[in-house]
Design goal:
Elements (H helix, E strand, L loop, with lengths): L2 E5 L3 H13 L3 E5 L3 H10 L4 E5 L4 H12 L9 E4 L3 H10 L4 E3 L4 H6 L3
Parallel strand pairs: 1-2, 1-3, 3-4, 4-5
C-alpha cells in the first residue's frame, strides 16, 4: 500500500478521507492548514504520492503541488489532484503538468497504479 500525504483545506473532510484510506491499508499523513508546511512534510519525508483536494480553495492545492515541484526532493513525488470544478482542474494541471486529476471515486485506482 502507499504512503500518502493528503492536502486539503477542510480538515473534517480530509480526516474522513484519511480514515477511509487508512482502512484500505494506506499510511496517511495530512495537512489542512498550511501549504508551505505540506511541502516541508513532503520534502522531508517524501510520500509515495501527494494527494491534493481541489474541492475547497483549489488555488491552495495547486500552489502546494507547484511548491513541491520547486524542491529537488519533491520533483519525483507523484501528484494526484482530486475533485474540483473543471476550470480548477485545468489550472492545476497547467501548473503541474505531470500530475493526474481524478474524481474521489477514482482515487483508489490511481493509487493502485503507482506500483
Amino acid at each position: 500500500m502507499a504512503r500518502l500525504l493528503l492536502v486539503g483545506w477542510r480538515a473534517v473532510a480530509v480526516e474522513a478521507e484519511a480514515a477511509r484510506l487508512r482502512a484500505a491499508g494506506h499510511e496517511v499523513r495530512t495537512e489542512t492548514a498550511d501549504g508551505a508546511r505540506a511541502v516541508r512534510k513532503a520534502t522531508g519525508d517524501p510520500p509515495d504520492a501527494l494527494v491534493a483536494y481541489l474541492t475547497h480553495r483549489p488555488s491552495h492545492g495547486r500552489e502546494t503541488a507547484a511548491g513541491l515541484r520547486g524542491h529537488r526532493a519533491g520533483r519525483t513525488v507523484p501528484v494526484i489532484f482530486v475533485g474540483g470544478e473543471p476550470e480548477d482542474v485545468e489550472k492545476a494541471l497547467a501548473k503541474v503538468p505531470d500530475a493526474q486529476a481524478v474524481e474521489r471515486e477514482e482515487l483508489e485506482e490511481a493509487l493502485a497504479a503507482l506500483g
